[in-house]
Design goal:
heterodimer; A: alpha/beta; Rossmann fold; 4 helices; 4 strands; B: 368 residues; alpha/beta; 2 domains; eight-stranded mixed sheet; 14 helices; 12% strand
Chain lengths: 143, 368
């Protein structure tokens, strides 16, 4: 695992406009420190994240993908986060069976008031990806 | 879900079971209870396709309901015939995996079931289209496709449509066929069938069920073995296994066309999203030192798995359609088993089961 020492994982984060993105904003304005490994993409709802976006990120070399949605019952569009949970669960099975592994894709409910939780989640994810090592898809030219 | 079916015995005479069943099909057209009938037919020696018959004599003389070939999963064709509310009643004679795929298409709002009479028919497997054509008429020595050898549903589902199921599994003497009428079958059609004077066949129905139970148990075991074996062959524990498996893909999208449940009228992979400019391709190639052309093959297949594996009826047509012989069936079978497993969903079982992506429970799938 020596190579992992200098390895800084790249994380693409699809964050719900109403909860997690605002939570990330709060982490920022509250000056909570967290690793700069994430590349946030604001989406209107976690339910709007097609699994293909996540796959595309992974296949193009992202080491991890974080999807952030509202807490259960809090979705601005009533139930988008519940639908996202189903889609993500199916995606995890596909990733696991195909050998990519489901540990690179995280789905978390983080509200607009949980800046600290957002920062903590990014810390955890970066640590976890450092242990996992770089995304092996980066090295496969014929994928 | 137990459905009490009304079972009638269709006697099979000297001329064989095709003749016996075609007589009934012709009668349905003749008496006007259905306006058209979609049935497998043989256009030229050894070449099986579908026929939409209106003339009763056409149906009687040309239908090949027992032909052991499935050139395309017929559900796609039925969906095309009844995509909008049809004026007349269309009858479709389908194999079990076709009935199940059609059930999914109805739920996906790609086919209209209201004016449709589905006649499902037992199936002990189909042989590859090309092999059948080459060997015809000496077809008895051919073995059925891999997907059919491990098929868990050789009988059409009782609950799928208010139709008729034709059974022959377990009725070994070949002297009769069993017609099981759904309790919700249209009264006019029921009347016509009952007027044909067939005897009740509840005893034969039990005999068929017993044979099916034995067959399904055997198939269940061989399916498990098949999944284990192909997993060992195709999976290397990492992502290289699947990448190698799909590396030969030429990006023709035939698997998508052949797939009865991959229903989008406009696929993301046909749009300009993936039409890269030279500059973008060069950049992408630079990242890894080089790039396989056509690219995005792994993305394409993984996306398809996400989009359709919940509705996958394991007909194996994807593999049949592949021009470079990628073994897609075992891969999709394994994925589908997992995704359908977590969603506790059996595609094609019943129009009443909601599609997993259209519903949710508040308390499920935790921890994420």
């Amino acid at each position: 695992m020596e190579a992992a020492v200098d390895f800084e994982p790249k994380i693409v984060a699809f964050l719900c406009n109403w909860c997690t993105y605002t939570g990330a904003d709060l982490a920022g304005v509250s000056r909570i420190q967290y690793p700069s490994n994430i590349r946030p993409i604001r989406v209107m709802c976690s339910g709007s994240v097609d699994p293909m976006y996540i796959l595309k990120a992974l296949l193009d070399g992202a080491d991890g993908v974080l999807v952030g949605g509202c807490h259960a019952g809090d979705c601005h569009y009533v139930n988008g986060n519940y639908k996202a949970r189903r889609r993500l669960a199916v995606l995890q099975e596909v990733l696991d069976e195909s050998g990519i592994g489901c540990d690179r894709v995280w789905f978390r409910f983080i509200s607009a008031s949980e800046g600290a939780l957002f920062a903590e989640t990014v810390h955890e994810m970066v640590d976890s990806l450092k242990r996992l090592g770089p995304n092996p898809l980066k090295a496969i030219w014929f994928a | 879900m137990t459905v009490i079916m009304n079972n009638l015995v269709i006697p099979v005479g000297e001329e064989g079971r095709t003749r016996a069943l075609n007589e009934v099909l012709g009668k349905l057209l003749e008496l006007g209870v259905v306006d058209a009938m979609m049935v497998p037919t043989m256009v030229t020696p050894g070449v099986i396709t579908y026929l939409l018959a209106r003339d009763p004599e056409f149906a009687r003389s040309k239908a090949e309901p027992f032909a052991p070939v499935m050139p395309v999963n017929g559900a796609s064709f039925v969906a095309k015939v009844v995509s909008k509310k049809p004026k007349g009643k269309v009858c479709a004679l389908l194999k079990p995996c076709e009935v199940r795929a059609l059930t999914e298409l109805v739920k996906l709002k790609q086919a209209e079931a209201d004016n449709l009479l589905v006649i499902g028919i037992d199936c002990l497997g189909t042989v590859a289209r090309g092999e059948y054509e080459k060997a015809y008429p000496d077809v008895d020595r051919l073995s059925v496709r891999e997907a059919c050898k491990v098929c868990l549903n050789p009988d059409p589902p009782d609950t799928a449509f208010a139709g008729i199921n034709i059974g022959y599994i377990g009725l070994d003497d070949g002297r009769c066929l069993l017609a099981s009428l759904s309790p919700d079958l249209d009264d006019r059609i029921r009347g016509v069938i009952e007027e044909l004077g067939f005897e009740k066949g509840d005893g034969l129905a039990d005999q068929r069920q017993a044979a099916l139970a034995v067959l399904k148990e055997e198939r269940g075991n061989s399916y498990e073995e098949f999944l284990r074996k192909t997993h060992a062959e195709q999976d290397d524990g990492g992502v290289c296994g699947i990448a190698k498996l799909l590396a030969a893909c030429v990006g023709c999208r035939n698997c998508r066309v052949a797939c009865p449940v991959c229903y989008c009228r406009e696929c993301i992979f046909d749009g300009d999203v993936f039409e890269y400019e030279t500059r973008q391709l060069l950049e992408r190639a630079e990242k890894k030192g080089g790039l396989k052309i056509p690219g995005e093959t792994l993305l394409y297949h993984l996306t398809r798995m996400n989009h359709m594996s919940l509705s996958c009826v394991a007909c194996g047509m994807c593999e049949e359609a592949c021009p470079v012989d990628i073994r897609l069936f075992p891969l999709f079978a394994r994925i589908a088993r997992r995704t359908q497993g977590i969603m506790e969903y059996t595609p094609g079982r019943s129009p009443e089961d909601p599609l997993p992506f259209t519903t949710f429970r508040e308390d499920e799938l935790e921890p994420r």
